[in-house]
Structures are given as structure tokens and as C-alpha cells.
Amino acid sequence: MEQILITDIPQEMMDKLVDLEIYINNIGINMKLLELIRLRVAQINGCAYCIDMHYKILKHLNETDLRLSSLIIWEETTYFTDKEKALLHFTEAVTKLNTKTISNSNYKTMNTYFSKSEIIFITLAITHINTWTRLMRTFKIEAGNYKVH
């Protein structure tokens, strides 16, 4: 297959993806939590472009270097709150579905910190960043040039 460039992706498709991103950003979930989700999914999926973007956004949101560098091993640290740990565990479960379903204990933990509607929107945010990471990796979008607005 010939290399597909980002400019080859139909603009209408990109517009719809951006519209969904804007919707997710405005549903009332804390932006720092959304960005932690996005950065963790980017790490799991090995998307350099998305890691660069969401790292920079989190820095702009005053996230610490210690937490950013430790996100990949969040379970082994004490730097994340129980709420963030529940969110990161859920994020990993949704991203790494394979043949497993989300466990009841995972839902129970999420219900401790989030409402049913928040969990639905968080799930949408997780699936959406999974879409972005897969597009960026498939079409080999170059990392390093993202600028926070």
C-alpha cells in the first residue's frame, strides 16, 4: 500500500472527529482527567504523535514532571489519587479489551468516584482517543510538532 498522508484523509472525516473531541471536552469531565486518559491510551498504543500532544497539554495544565514520567507505571506509585487510579485502571481495561469484558469490580470502583453518565462519557473519551491513536499510527503522522493553543 502506498503511504497515506494526513492530507489524504477526507476533511469531512477529520471535521467529525474534531467535533466529537470538542463535544467530549465540554461534557463536564475535568480536563486534567481527560488528558490523563488520553496520554495513557497513547502510551499503551505507542502513538508518538499523541504522546507528544497530550504530554504538552498536561504540562500546560500544570501537571508535574514526576506524575507525567510515572504515568506509564502509575500502579507502582503513590502520586495518583484513588479516583485517578480507578480512572486509569478503567482506561486500560477499555483500551486492552482483547477478549475480556470489563469486570464488575472495575465498574464498582468507577461507581465510587463517577456517576453512571460520567462513566458513559469517560468510555466515549477512551474510545475516541483510541481512534485517534490508531489513525496517527496507521498513517505515520510525525510527532514533535504539536503546539498547545
Entry keywords:
149 residues, CMD-like, single chain, Carboxymuconolactone decarboxylase family protein, AhpD-like, globular, mainly alpha, 7 helices
How would you portray this structure in words?
With 149 residues, the chain is mainly α. The protein has a single domain (31-138), classed as AhpD-like, CATH 1.20.1290. Helix content is 64%, strand content 0%. The chain is built from 7 helices and no strands. The protein is globular and about 45 Å long. The termini are far apart. The relative contact order is 0.18. Residues 22-92 form the Carboxymuconolactone decarboxylase-like domain. This is Carboxymuconolactone decarboxylase family protein. InterPro entries: AhpD-like (IPR029032), AhpD_core (IPR004675), CMD-like (IPR003779).
- Give the biggest beta sheet: none
Report the principal-axis shape.
globular
Distance between the termini: 35 Å
Structural class: mainly alpha
Count of DSSP strands: 0
Order of helices and strands: HHHHHHH
- Count of helical stretches: 7
- CATH superfamily heading: AhpD-like
CATH topology: AhpD-like
Mean pLDDT: 93
Report the sheet-strand fraction: under 5%
CATH level 1 name: Mainly Alpha
The parts where pLDDT drops under 50 for at least 5 residues are: none
Rg, Å, rounded: 16 Å
Residue share in helix: 55-70%
CATH architecture: Up-down Bundle
Task: Give a nutshell description of this structure.
It comes from Tenacibaculum geojense. By secondary structure, this protein is mainly α. It has one domain: AhpD-like.
